[in-house]
């Protein structure tokens, strides 16, 4: 929507000083096409699970005055990391960041985008990605005829110039984020159309298809992680009928994608928006109620109700999801009309929950449109100044939406994502409680990478029986217990991330002493290995071989996991840095003792 209404691989200076490492030049970096070691290849099912439910940072980085975007141009405040944290804490896992470029793009033939603007876009994206959220960055207002400075016009005469400019701008954006991991998704454009609400003209739609192809080719050719990240492609005006129907939309060829992507998998998703019926969702009218539960016939319309929503999303499934292309509802929502009808928010909640449930049912991700405006006719869910929720009821409805059981034949076997296998010692399990009664547990990761699901196994020594549980799902067969993650806590972040769970148990017996997580023995278990800090190769002594192993880890040559990771973390901060290397070096030079390792005293 466009409304004027308003890694953790840190090669520190200490490493360079210790080893005289030379930095890789920008030219050399851009020439390499390998994926970074932390980049995760997500299939369709994993992507949908990870992205969850999304939210738009609307009317901010796309806000333009006199043809130039300004972050605060339409009245919203400067974005902060603290505000993004409030959005995450509300339950949103994905943020779409609409961005306009317009007159921040320089003149031909280079079309250089102002560095300051790209830096700010990256900074805002970092606010979310650093908090393990997914981010969608697009080109938002550059294709609107009604916006001063717009240039991405599908029915303009000089398409060669437009396409050249489009390619060069996206090349700069892609280069800026080239080494970002899978949490970043590019969207080629926004509601691109000719401004005419009639059916699209074939020649104009062909230009839109050309833009999408240029976008995919350009991003992929920048290499690095861009060769494998998910890309988001809209059809005509992000309209479902014009995208899924027979009007000329063409999915771009993905010729230059990474060879590391499994041949059977796609890395392109389809972008559409949902504001139907507009009379309820966006028009400042007396249509304030929606759905089968509407009680006032004068305040509702007969079209675009639940059955229509179902048919629209089913069309996306049949056209794209069956082929392996997920879809993202990049915008949906309804404006506040409580002044006209005090019951309006009830129907806004119903609409949001229904849309989210059906989107998940048919293989998509819903992303709510929030323009930051919380008054009459606003889409806002949060106060942008305080971060406090202004529409907690709608947020609760969005989060309550569950994937419905499909009433169609999916035509494909479901993808089962198994827990990630890991070496012994990759997790630490704590068990806080008596032999029975209430028990609280934590699972802490020592891995370099995130995991997306977990299974905890242990045995009771007596006749204990679990009677209730939180933070997981369990089965018990005799003394053997298997606990799997709940729907909301499958991910355990790398380098010290943890989750909590607990249960009540009856009976008596000794505390369990051996635990397995994802099939590997947890560190600290009775049968587990004893960790000696600094002894990375676990040969009983600390030597130059251990020093070299830590150095290789820092250089990304040979990543340490499990007990080796724990042994290398001699300062006990749940990460491996140049400081750990320095402690080991001082010990080898006789400048310190084993007891001086900070982790030893912890």
TrEMBL record:
All residue ranges annotated as the Dockerin domain in the record: 529-599
The answer to whether the entry has keyword Manganese is no
Q: Tell me the SUPFAM superfamilies matching this sequence.
A: (Trans)glycosidases, Carbohydrate-binding domain, Type I dockerin domain
Class of enzymatic activity (EC top level): hydrolase
InterPro entries per the record? CBD2, CBM2/CBM3_carb-bd_dom_sf, CBM2_carb-bd_dom_sf, Dockerin_1_rpt, Dockerin_dom, Dockerin_dom_sf, EF_Hand_1_Ca_BS, GH
**What are its GO biological-process terms?**
cellulose catabolic process
Write the Enzyme Commission number(s) for this entry: 3.2.1.4
Q: Name one Pfam family in it.
A: Cellulase
Q: Where is the signal peptide?
A: 1-29
- Give the GO cellular component terms, alphabetically: cell surface; extracellular region
Q: Origin, by domain of life?
A: Bacteria
The CBM2 domain covers 410-525
Q: What GO molecular functions are on record for this protein?
A: beta-glucosidase activity; cellulase activity; polysaccharide binding
Keywords for this protein: Carbohydrate metabolism, Cellulose degradation, Glycosidase, Hydrolase, Polysaccharide degradation, Signal
> According to its UniProt record, which protein family does this protein belong to?
Belongs to the glycosyl hydrolase 5 (cellulase A) family.
The protein here is known as: Endoglucanase
Q: Which organism is it from?
A: Ruminiclostridium sufflavum DSM 19573
């Amino acid at each position: 929507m466009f409304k004027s209404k308003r890694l953790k691989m840190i090669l520190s200076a200490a490493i360079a000083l210790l080893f005289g490492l030379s930095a890789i030049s920008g030219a050399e970096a851009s020439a390499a096409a390998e994926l970074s070691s932390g980049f995760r290849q997500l299939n369709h099912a994993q992507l949908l699970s990870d992205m969850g439910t999304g939210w738009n940072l609307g009317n901010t980085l796309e806000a333009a005055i006199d043809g130039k975007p300004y972050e605060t141009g339409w009245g919203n405040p400067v974005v902060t990391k603290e505000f993004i944290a409030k959005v995450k804490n509300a339950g949103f896992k994905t943020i779409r960041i609409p961005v306009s470029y317009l007159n921040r793009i320089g003149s031909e033939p280079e079309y250089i985008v102002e560095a300051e603007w790209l830096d700010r876009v990256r900074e805002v994206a970092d606010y979310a990605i650093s908090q393990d959220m997914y981010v969608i960055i697009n080109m938002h207002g550059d294709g609107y005829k009604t916006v001063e400075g717009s240039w991405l016009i599908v029915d303009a005469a000089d398409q060669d110039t437009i396409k050249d400019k489009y390619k060069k701008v996206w090349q700069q954006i892609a280069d800026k984020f080239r080494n970002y991991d899978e949490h970043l998704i590019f969207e080629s454009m926004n509601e691109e159309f000719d401004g005419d609400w009639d059916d699209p003209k074939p020649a104009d739609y062909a230009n839109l298809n050309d833009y999408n192809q240029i976008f995919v080719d350009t991003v992929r050719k920048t290499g690095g992680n861009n060769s494998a990240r998910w890309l988001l492609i809209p059809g005509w005006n992000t309209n479902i009928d014009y995208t899924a129907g027979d009007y000329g939309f063409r999915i771009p060829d993905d010729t230059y994608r990474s060879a590391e992507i499994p041949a059977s998998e796609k890395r392109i998703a389809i972008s559409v928006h949902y504001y139907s019926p507009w009379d309820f969702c966006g028009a400042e009218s007396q249509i304030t109620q929606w759905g089968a539960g509407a009680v006032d016939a004068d305040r509702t319309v007969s079209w675009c109700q639940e059955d229509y929503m179902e048919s629209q999303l089913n069309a996306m499934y049949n056209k794209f999801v069956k082929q392996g292309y997920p879809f993202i509802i990049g915008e949906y929502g309804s404006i506040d009309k409580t002044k006209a009808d005090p019951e309006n928010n009830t129907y806004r909640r119903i609409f949001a929950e229904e849309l989210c449930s059906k989107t998940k049912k048919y293989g998509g991700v819903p992303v709510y449109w929030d323009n930051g405006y919380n008054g009459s006719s606003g889409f806002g869910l949060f106060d942008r100044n305080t971060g406090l929720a202004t529409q907690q009821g709608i947020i609760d409805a969005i989060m309550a939406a569950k994937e419905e059981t499909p009433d169609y034949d999916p035509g494909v076997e479901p993808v089962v994502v198994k827990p990630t296998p890991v070496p012994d010692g990759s997790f630490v399990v704590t068990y806080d409680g008596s032999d029975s009664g209430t028990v609280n547990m934590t699972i802490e990761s020592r891995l370099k990478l995130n995991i997306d699901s977990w299974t905890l196994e242990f045995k009771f020594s007596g006749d204990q029986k679990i009677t209730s549980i939180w933070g997981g799902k369990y089965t018990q067969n005799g003394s053997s217990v298997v606990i799997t993650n709940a729907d909301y806590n499958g991910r355990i972040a790398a380098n010290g991330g943890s989750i909590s769970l607990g249960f009540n148990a009856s009976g008596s017996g000794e505390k369990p002493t051996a635990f397995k997580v994802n099939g590997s023995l947890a560190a600290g278990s009775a049968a587990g290995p004893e960790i000696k800090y600094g002894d990375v190769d676990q040969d009983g002594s600390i030597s130059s071989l251990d020093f070299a192993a830590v150095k290789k880890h820092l250089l990304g040559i040979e990543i340490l996991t499990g007990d080796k990771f724990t042994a290398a973390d001699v300062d006990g901060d749940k990460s491996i840095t140049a400081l750990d290397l320095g402690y080991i070096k001082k010990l080898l030079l006789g400048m310190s003792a084993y007891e001086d390792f900070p982790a030893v005293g912890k």
